[in-house]
Structure formats: structure tokens, C-alpha cells
Design goal:
The structure is a single chain. By secondary structure, this protein is of the alpha/beta class. The protein folds into 3 domains: about 1-145, Rossmann fold (3-Layer(aba) Sandwich); about 150-290, no CATH class; about 315-390, RNA polymerase sigma factor, region 2, helix turn helix motif (Rna Polymerase Sigma Factor, Chain: A). It has helices at about 10-20, 40-50, 60-70, 80-85, 105-110, 120-140, 150-155, 190-195, 205-210, 215-225, 265-270, 285-290, 305-315, 320-335, 340-355, 365-390; strands at about 1-5, 30-35, 55, 75-80, 95, 115-120, 145, 165-170, 235, 245-250, 255-260. The strands form 2 sheets. The protein has a 7-stranded parallel sheet, with helices on both faces. Helix 1 (about 10-20) packs across helix 11, helix 2 (about 40-50) runs parallel beside helix 3 (about 60-70) and helix 6 (about 120-140) runs antiparallel to helix 14 (about 320-335). The radius of gyration is 20 Å and the shape is globular. Bound molecules: nicotinamide-adenine-dinucleotide and magnesium ion.
Length: about 400
């Protein structure tokens, strides 16, 4: 039996992971499931999968979780420290599907145990790519991509020599507003930004898809994961979301990964890697689909893409600043404090203000330094948001 843990089990990726695991209950020994506010879901899944431990991020919900798990034999715990401890319990395969920078420390804890980490939490690579990779290397752990584009690239690279790779093209649906007139974007509402044309995902990544911050983060994720130069990575708008990524080789060949927009493919690939097993995803009928379309991304419409290129150029801890500013701006948009276009403006402001070297932070990429920079960038973003509001 494979020992598996799911960090962020109650979310969209977590639930899709559970869907796959629950189909073969005899194959998996579930160690830890973690969640946040949805105690009922967390407890139900922990009981059903007979997990060793269930952890909520919220300390004040510990009693609720205990009550919900009463008589089940599943241990209950709470708080971010408890999540990192659960992630450090010996397991063969750990799904990293917490949303945001909160996923970094638990992911590192799993890598330090030598577990295979299936990485949906792109924020860890954006904030601390080098730290994730060096930790994996030091502990003989493996990182497998779960983001659909990166899983697609990873699959297109099987058996290939990285030296033969010329470019990597990640596709973007364009999100909810891809066809909106530019002048309407400023007035886009939370409801409008929270519905994706093709994918069913958590609210934050759905809004990030509309603003292209999701693709911006994926540019950085691609650079970190595959070790390619920023100039080798392209974004291509592909409204149908059938081709997830393409790898271009020196001989001019393009290897494309084609599949339905269903995250259970990428999750299942990481779960069964290096083999392929049956997965409950739709089979595409290309004759029925008829046409696939592509367009170049417009950086005026989506300034997040330009910002990501600046972040890649800067390197070091710029990714941690970028992510923290983006998370804070997104909180502001969700809370109704900011307009849709303000998010990119705030991230740009924070990046500019924090680009000068800061005496009190050394630029070494440790978990401590990333946390410090993350904290400062959130403070700065909050200040900028208040200034705009006032
Ligand atoms: P979601 O909002 O649906 O779920 C997030 C999970 O994280 C939940 O279990 C929640 O309880 C937990 N969580 C939230 N805040 C937390 C905190 N502070 N500490 C600990 N746990 C916390 O999000 P999602 O759409 O499943 O996305 C999860 C991750 O996967 C994100 O990094 C996202 O970018 C990435 N991703 C998602 C998709 C998708 O299809 N949903 C695709 C590619 C990548
Ligand atoms: Mg993606």
C-alpha cells in the first residue's frame, strides 16, 4: 500500500485527488488530510479514507474538528505548525494543494522526509523555487508537476534531452475577460471574475486566470521547474484549453500535450508516474471539436505577464515579493476594496518599492528570509491599498 497525504484536501485539487484515491481504496494508506474552514468536508473525507490525522489551519476550529471526528479513531490537530508536522509524517506521495504561500513550509517539510511531492501549489516555486529544488535534491525527494501546463511539458519531455529544447509554450485560456473590451475591465466585478470559461477551480486561481496572474506565476514556475531561460518560455492564448503546453525542439518539432480540461489527468499522471493507468477523464473527439484556435497574448490587457518577466529577470527573492503583493491585492479585490485593474498596479508598485536592496534582509533563499520578504511585501501592499482607497 502506498502511504499518501493530501495538503489542501478540501479544495478543488484536493477533492479531485481524493476522487482518484477513493476509486482504489485498497491501494492507498492515507496518512494526513489537511484543510482550513470546511471542517465537515475534512472530517467526512478523513473518516471515509480512514486517515491517521486530519488538520485544520484554523486553531479556533480544533474543537469542531474533534467533535466531527469523534469515535472515528482519526487524530485531530490545528494550526499551521500542525499542518507542517502532518506533512512531515512519513509518506510515499504527498499532494501539495494548499492555495498561496501557506503551502511552502508544508511542502518543504514533505520534501525533507524524502517524499515524492506532487506540486499543485505553484506559489512555492514562485516564492522559493531554488529552495524547493535544493531541498528535494538534498533529501533524495522528487517533485512532480500537477499544474496542467507543467504536467504537459513534463510529459512531452519524457525521453528527451533538455539540451535539445529550444522553447516551451504554455497555453492560457485567457480567462473570463479574454473577449471583453479593454475599457470595461476596470469595472469587472468579483462575480464576473470568479467564473472560468473552461476550468472548474478554486476562486483565487479563477480570478488569477482572468487577470493572467495565474499565467504570470506559471511563467516563473516553468523557469524554476525546467531550468530554462525566461526568453525560452512563451505564453499562447488558446481559448479551448485542449492543448495544455508544447515543447519546441532544436529540429523544429513541436510536441503538444492534448487533453480535456480536467485536472484529474495531471493529478493522476503524478499519482501513477512513471506508469500510466486508466483515468476517468473524457476522451476527446477532435473531429467533433473541429477547430482549435490560438492568439498572441496582449501585454496591455494583461500587465501581469510583463511583471512576471521582470521578476524572472530580477531573480532572488523577487518572486516572493511578487507573490505576496499579488495575494494581498487579490484579497483586496475579493473584499471589494479594489477594482480589477488595481491588482496589477499594486503589484507593480510594491515590486518597484521593494526592488532596492534592503539592509536588514539578506537575499539568501532560506524559508526564514522568504517569510520575512513575504511579510514586508504584504505590509507594503496593504499600505498602497489604503493609500489608494483614502
Ligand atoms: P482551493 O481554494 O479550492 O483549495 C485550497 C485548499 O487550501 C483548501 O483545502 C483550503 O482549506 C486550504 N487552505 C487555504 N488557506 C490555507 C492556509 N492558510 N493554510 C492551510 N491551508 C489552507 O484551491 P485550488 O483551486 O484547489 O488550488 C490549490 C493550489 O493548486 C493553488 O496553488 C492553485 O494555484 C493550484 N492549482 C489549482 C488548479 C485547479 O484546477 N484548481 C490547477 C492548477 C494549479
Ligand atoms: Mg495551470
Amino acid at each position: 500500500m502506498r502511504r499518501v497525504s493530501i495538503l489542501g484536501a478540501t479544495g478543488s485539487i484536493g477533492q479531485n485527488t481524493i476522487d482518484l484515491i477513493a476509486r482504489a481504496p485498497d491501494a492507498y494508506d492515507v496518512v494526513a488530510l489537511t484543510g482550513a474552514g470546511n471542517i465537515a468536508q475534512l472530517a467526512e473525507d478523513a473518516r471515509r479514507l480512514n486517515a491517521d490525522v486530519a488538520v485544520t489551519a484554523h486553531s479556533h476550529l480544533l474543537e469542531d474538528l474533534r467533535t466531527a471526528l469523534d469515535g472515528s479513531g482519526v487524530e485531530a490537530a490545528a494550526g499551521s505548525q500542525a499542518i507542517a508536522e502532518a506533512a512531515a509524517r512519513p509518506a510515499d506521495w504527498v499532494m501539495s494543494a494548499i492555495v498561496g504561500a501557506a503551502g511552502l513550509a508544508p511542502g518543504l517539510a514533505a520534501l525533507q522526509q524524502g517524499s515524492t511531492l506532487a506540486l499543485a501549489n505553484k506559489e512555492s516555486l514562485v516564492c522559493a523555487g531554488q529552495l524547493m529544488l535544493s531541498t528535494a535534491k538534498a533529501h533524495g525527494a522528487r517533485l512532480l508537476p500537477v499544474d496542467s501546463e507543467h504536467s504537459a511539458v513534463f510529459q512531452a519531455l519524457v525521453g528527451e534531452d533538455m539540451a535539445a529544447v529550444e522553447r516551451i509554450i504554455i497555453t492560457a485560456s485567457g480567462g473570463a475577460f479574454r473577449d471583453w473590451p479593454m475599457e470595461d475591465l476596470a469595472n469587472a466585478t468579483l462575480d464576473q471574475a470568479s467564473s472560468h470559461p473552461n476550468w472548474d477551480m478554486g476562486q483565487r486561481i479563477t480570478i488569477d486566470s482572468a487577470s493572467m496572474f495565474n499565467k504570470a506565476m506559471e511563467l516563473i514556475e516553468t523557469r524554476e521547474f525546467f531550468g530554462v531561460e525566461p526568453e525560452q518560455i512563451e505564453v499562447l492564448v488558446h481559448p479551448e484549453s485542449m492543448i495544455h503546453a508544447m515543447v519546441g525542439f532544436r529540429d523544429g518539432a513541436l510536441m503538444a500535450h492534448v487533453g480535456p480540461p480536467d485536472m484529474r489527468h495531471a493529478i493522476g499522471y503524478a499519482l501513477h508516474w512513471p506508469t500510466r493507468r486508466d483515468l476517468p477523464v473524457a476522451r476527446l473527439d477532435l473531429a467533433e471539436i473541429g477547430q482549435l484556435s490560438f492568439r498572441a497574448p496582449c501585454e496591455t490587457r494583461w500587465p501581469a505577464l510583463r511583471l512576471a518577466r521582470e521578476v524572472m529577470q530580477a531573480g532572488g527573492l523577487a518572486g516572493a515579493v511578487f507573490n505576496a503583493a499579488k495575494e494581498t491585492a487579490l484579497d483586496g479585490f475579493i473584499a471589494g476594496q479594489l477594482g480589477f485593474n488595481d491588482m496589477a498596479a499594486i503589484v507593480e508598485d510594491v515590486l518597484t518599492k521593494m526592488s532596492a536592496p534592503r539592509g536588514h534582509i539578506d537575499a539568501t533563499m532560506s524559508l526564514d528570509n522568504v517569510a520575512k520578504v513575504d511579510h514586508l511585501a504584504r505590509q507594503e501592499a496593504t499600505r498602497v491599498i489604503h493609500k489608494r482607497a483614502g
